[in-house]
Amino acid sequence: MTDDDAGGDTDTDEELTYADAGVDIDASEAATAALVSAVGDAGAEGSDYAGLLDIGDRYLALATDGVGTKLIVAEALGDYSTVGIDCIAMNANDLVAAGVDPVAFVDYLAVDEPDETFSEQVGAGLREGAERAGVALVGGETAVMPEVIKGLDLAGTCAGLVAKDAVFDGHAEPGDALVGWESSGIHSNGLTLAREAATREHEYTDPCPFDGYDTVGEALLEPTRIYADLLEPMREHGVRGAAHITGGGWTNLERLGENRYEVTDPWPVQPVFEFVQEQGNVADEEMHRTFNMGTGFVAAVDPERAESLAAETDGRVIGTVAEGERVAIRGLVL
Predict the structure, then answer these.
(1) What's the gap between Cα 285 and its chain centre?
(2) What is the pLDDT of residues 190-216, one digit of tens each?
């Protein structure tokens, strides 16, 4: 899930929340539920991450998402070269979380006026994202809509194929181990909060106050990691279900069923999150309910196979599944 734009003047000492920045997660989830209810059963099965269409011995899977307000940072820097990676990543990773092989991607670029420079940059990012995800780019649509769009919006749909017996069950069981993989940074959700915090006292073009990036905006633009390479190792190790840590942050683990998720050794919090939290005076709980906080993908697996899976994929065992409810991480209960 990506976010929508919001802004406004704030007191730099005031504690900032995602809702204050303009995105109310509870309201968004309620609106989504209303849409799903209105659509009803349209002939497809589904997981929490993708729609599944029965085509005989396999499922055709579809996931759709966009880049969100990360595009505003790209506009400020005049650099759209990475947002295509984000667009493919947000979709392909959802398919991987369902246990589906991403195979093809189609993009939708909406602009207020055509511009060859940013179109070329977006295209380069889509090409790079497709290579990382191992998918084919099968066309797309560019729509010029000056009365609807201000600037541009980029979204897309990823198609996948999977044998019916290869789809993840999607439900963790008490006693399972949790294996996690590092994120590349903020990825492509929570940017409304991140932008609001980062620009309280900085411009996107200001020098970055931590190592690794030249500017604040460059740190926010770090493209989303694509986890397609994890799919086969996860299958080989009998992963029951996986969670893509996107909108809603660590509460995404609850998509794996009603359990207690004890996260005892997550990947370290990267400096970009510390920067956002400090600049926005954002509470720990709000950070973990909004961002991946260093861990971008999690799988539930038999504890006897967890260390092997982690070792083969540069992951780490980050916790366990127990009876109960909610997510416990870094002294918080979400």
Answers:
(1) 18
(2) 999 999 999 999 999 999 999 999 999
